[in-house]
Amino acid sequence: MTGLAWALFYEKRYSPALDLSQKALAGREKLLGKDHPDYFRSIYLSARLQHVKKEYIRAEPMYRKACGGFERVLGAGHAETKKASIDFEHLLEEMKEMEGLIGM
Q1: Signed CA dihedral, 4, 8, 9, 14: sign only
Q2: 66: which residues sit within 8 A by CB, 6+ positions away?
Q3: What angle do CA 95, 71, 90 make, to 5 degrees?
Q4: Burial letters for 33-46: b for 16+ Cβ neighbours within 10 Å, e otherwise?
Q5: DSSP character for 78?
Q6: From 63's CA, which of 11, 70, 74, 81 has a CA 20 to 30 Å away?
Q7: pTM of the complete model
Q8: From first to last of its 104 residues, what are the pLDDT tens digits of the chain?
């Protein structure tokens, strides 16, 4: 299910991809538990999808959870941890920019 969600992501079909990723997240949590790398991969995918949909408020806590989980189970130097952290930093930069625009 996650593979299909990523395929939809790359096709820019974000809403159906988000629906699938959230179903995958629920299934992975139930089957694998909350300390499995695949659980955090599903959280990261949901965060990415919400990010590209500009749903920053929803994406932010999911990125935090994914980054923290990846660091804990895979390590700080792991490629997935680094990628998620970079994407999270981009989100925070975009949120800061939006905040600046709103304050003008």
Answers
A1: negative
A2: 40, 41, 43, 44, 47, 84, 88
A3: 20
A4: eeeeebbbbbbbbb
A5: S
A6: 11
A7: 0.88
A8: 778 888 998 999 999 998 999 898 899 999 999 999 999 999 999 999 999 999 999 999 999 999 999 999 999 999 999 999 999 999 999 999 988 777 65
